[in-house]
Description:
Layout: E1 11-16, E2 22-26, H1 29-32, H2 45-50, H3 68-81, E3 86-90, H4 93-96, H5 106-121, E4 125-131, H6 137-141, H7 148-165, E5 171-176, H8 178-186, H9 198-222, E6 227-239, H10 244-267, H11 272-279, H12 291-295, E7 301-313, E8 340-341, H13 357-370, E9 376-380, H14 398-416, E10 421-427, E11 446-449, E12 454-457, H15 459-470, E13 472-477
Parallel strand pairs: 2-3, 2-10, 3-4, 4-5, 5-6, 6-7, 7-9, 9-10
Antiparallel strand pairs: 1-13, 7-8, 11-12
Amino acid sequence: MTTQETRAETRSPGLMFPTGFVWGAATSAYQIEGAVAADGRGTSVWDTFVNQPGHVVGGENADVAIDHYNRYREDVRLMAGLGLTAYRFSVSWPRIQPDGAGAVNAKGLDFYKRLVDELLAHGVDPWLTLYHWDLPQALEDAGGWPERDTASRFADFAALVHDELGDRVTNWSTVNEPWCAAFLGYASGEHAPGRREPAAAIRAAHHLNLAHGLSTQAMRAQRADSLIGGCVNLYAISPATGSEADRDAARRIDGLQNRFFLDALLKGAYPEDVLADLRAVTDTDFIQDGDLALIGAPLDTLLVNYYSRFTVSGAPGGARSAAAAPTDSGSPWVGSERVGFVNGGRPVTAMGWEIDDSGLYEILTRLARDYPSVPLVISENGAAFDDELTADGRVHDQERLAYIDAHLRTCHAAIEAGVPLRGYFAWSLMDNFEWAWGYGKRFGLVYVDYPTQRRVLKDSALWYAEAARHGGLPGAAE
């Protein structure tokens, strides 16, 4: 750590969280590792996507990212210094299985063994995500997620990784944000592989869900003590007015964004109204007998990524996702392309995402009310702002600090209301490659000076460290 990374002023906790509450931060492999050609790693769809003109702001790529592949020991020491009790990270499928099937790349797998050992040695619990969007290009060449076989290949990959690391990693997540992988990747083309095929996106969404079910089955056959969860990105959805058209728009977007995945994971069924919306685009005969039973097998944990609220209108408005890239793209809202997204008048982050912690409370209490009881974890929550390293060598990101504070207070209120919330992971641990936005959007608790790769704790990191150490939100200065 640098001399600027001094410990924040000790504060007494104002709100205490339950004993054992997980205080973590999260990253993903492609956004931080770099070393895209090192030690036998194969090519991913994102490697291909970023090297095509117009896909990423400024033509940037993740060839180096923040060089975590070579600096992981330094980064783990940083986590331990922050008092994190857990670290959520993903493994790179093409680093471990370059072609998405067949032979294992031992050097790639060894990297994750070293990372897990380093985390455990520093008292940080590893939470492993198996898929955060970096599909091996060889599998995309064979059709990608619209092809059912990709789900089977993923189950094989999950079993391989779980067999090697299951003795040291307890908490496992299968597919991160399947909505993004399906509809940003195959409908709008904003994300890799950049396809604009609405019918293919629907098949991809189901096969990503199926990949969760098949991989869960495979891992549970190996070990009974692993805790396995699915991970969804959820939004609170509000109609712009009380009109019938706006209420139907809210139903449609809630259906495709939230219920399509929640009902499959937690009820073993797809919502009939959502299927009816999607049948206007394609038939659903790719959903085979037994699929939903696999997908809906009981979970140990539901991981929830939350960032913002959508306000929607039935009036045409050129629908775009909250994560829309600043490039020409199609709509990710398959079957509901004419739904409009309305500015709700709230403050926004540097991504243009409205800040609304009340939406998180709405999501958490809805899960506890409407779905079978399952332990919940906030696996991503955070905000991008225009951070600057100031003359005093610090990053005074008070907006991010306030964002995290507000959302943690909402988590505490949800726990008080009976929601089985077990932990919180800030997104992200460090500034990194922000997909189609390149390096211009900073989400990190830790500032990364990209030319030098120097890490500097932001004010939000120092504040979060105090919360993690004391198990509660800071109150008045002592």
